[in-house]
Amino acid sequence: MTGLPITPGLIGATNEIALTENLQIIGYSNDGLDPEGIALDHEGNFWICDEYGPFVAKFDKKGKLLKEYATGNGLPEVLKYRIPNRGFEGITVAPNGKIYIAVQSVLNIEEKTAVTAQFTRIVELDPLTGKTRMYAYPIDRENYNSPKDAKIGDIFAISNDKLLLIEQGKDKEKKMRNIIYLVELQGATDISNLKIDGKEPEFITDKNKLSTIKFASKTMIIDLRTNGWKAEKAEGIAMLPDGKTIVVASDNDFGITIDVQDSENQDTEILDYTLYPDGSLKHNNKVAKPVFRIVPNPDAVESNTQLWLIKLPETLK
């Protein structure tokens, strides 16, 4: 397993190009994964989900790869329409052994549904039979400028059909939302092969037509931001055995950032530049000679990992 991007043209490719600190192209790896979630099953195996493919990989306790699932090869093919780098973002093992994996954002089928979809998908995988189901998790559509602005941070199974889930993203006022929901899958429609008007339900915005689908139900447990959470991303969640204590962790992106020094162009960021095959850099189509440095993130909130323990008044069931 490597962290390199998948070869362009293959399932799982994001068309990213990996570079060294000197902006030299590293190359690709078809064993590349971008792990975003980890869970332990009853036999001590580790399940990892990835946002490239999206992929799911099962490893034994010594790190040996036992099985890999890919779109069209163990996982529903429609998942290939994930927004690049927004494949799977959370994975959990239910008490009955079934695996649940959350797609980070809405699917973008035919490059059209990132702005129409009303839900993202939660995948159920039975590791004994290999069978899968998919459920629609309704995002808080009214809070975002676009459906694609909603992101799942992580999930955790507290029972065979109930999950804790983090939904987050910038709202219409560009302010971050970080909310923990209790999501119930019992009775939700399996949308694996469901079409409406001959299309995947992500195309549909008419609520009357979507009423034929029973979405997963959701109940807010806590709004992290209104309770003092300041980090941008909450990307880890678990429930302690007492059934009352939720553990939440932030993603500090390694506690680093990129400093740009450019005497010809002021107040620029690395994404303001284009790297050409001959190694030259341009800013606004003009040759530039910036200096890029990887430095500690000066923002203490973002550079330090936040770890919260939240004690609920009653046990979640």
Count of discrete domains: 3
Number of separate strands: 21
Main sheet attributes: strand count, strand direction, barrel closure: 5 strands, mixed
What is the level 1 CATH name of the largest domain?
Mainly Beta
Gross geometry: globular
Examine the coordinates and then state which fold CATH places here, giving the name of the CATH topology of the largest domain. Answer: Neuraminidase
Protein name: Esterase-like activity of phytase family protein
Domain Phytase-like: 28-254
InterPro entries: 6-blade_b-propeller_TolB-like, Phytase-like_dom
Pfam families: Phytase-like (PF13449)
Give the tags.
317 residues, 4-stranded antiparallel sheet, single chain, 3 domains, Neuraminidase, Phytase-like_dom, Esterase-like activity of phytase family protein, 6-blade_b-propeller_TolB-like, mainly beta
